[in-house]
Design brief:
Blueprint: H1 2-5, H2 17-51, H3 56-121, H4 125-149, H5 161-181, H6 196-200
Helix pairs in contact: 2-3
Length: 233
């Protein structure tokens, strides 16, 4: 049958938004290159018009410049149209991606809802409350066990608090006395010189004056000097 009537040709898949956008962007780049070339030619013609004297030659250059300017305006219109098409395609692509994201979000939420329902079936609030009560009982029982194991042995319960405070004060006094007895003497402590005059109670040095009411002269060592006598001949 295929040999007689021939096989039906398969239709090519329609272009995607991404393919159409890429193709239009390439066309827009081509048009931009043409506009740049025309701008370069217009600059050359403008320089020629400045250098040419008014007359037929200058008018000819102006005519060529006007023709190039018209081509530029045409290409600029095509470029604007291509940019508008690209903008529309990008909006369509954005809307399509948003719909796909919404579908994936709904699928994920449905799957999570199903899993949550399956998990909640295995949980019972009464069982949880019962387990919490058992845990509290076990914690209380463990505290009682620890308290029982921590009891002290051979310690009388009827101790007088005043007697304990008295023993503590006596112990502090004994510790203070030992500390004073073990202290280093002042004359052995560093950075301190012994006060020999105070410890030995030495009398003050003689002032060089005699005990008599009349004052006598003294030499450089503090002893009274002997008065000199004049010899008479």
């Amino acid at each position: 049958m295929k040999r007689v009537f021939g096989a039906k040709k398969e239709k090519a898949p329609p272009p995607t938004v991404e393919d159409a956008t890429e193709r239009i962007n390439k066309r827009g780049d081509t048009v931009d290159e043409k506009i740049k070339k025309l701008d370069a030619e217009l600059i050359k013609y403008r320089e020629q018009i400045k250098r040419t004297r008014p007359g037929p030659a200058q008018e000819a250059v102006k005519a060529r410049a006007m023709r190039i300017l018209k081509q530029k305006k045409m290409f600029e219109g095509q470029r604007d149209m291509l940019y508008n098409q690209t903008f529309n395609l990008e909006q369509v692509s954005f809307a399509t991606e948003g719909i796909k994201d919404a579908q994936q979000t709904m699928s994920a939420m449905k799957a999570a809802n199903k899993d949550l329902k399956g998990t909640m079936k295995n949980l019972n609030l009464d069982d949880i409350d019962r387990m919490q009560d058992e845990m509290m009982d076990l914690v209380d029982y463990s505290s009682e066990i620890q308290e029982s194991l921590g009891r002290s042995y051979n310690v009388p319960d009827d101790l007088d608090e005043e007697e304990l405070m008295g023993e503590l004060s006596a112990l502090e006094d004994e510790m203070g006395t030992e500390t004073t007895a073990d202290a280093v003497p002042s004359y052995l402590q560093p950075d301190k010189e012994p006060e020999f005059e105070t410890e030995l109670n030495l009398p003050p040095a003689p002032s060089g004056h005699a005990a008599t009411p009349q004052a006598q002269a003294a030499d450089e060592y503090g002893f009274p000097t002997v008065p000199r006598t004049t010899l008479r001949t």
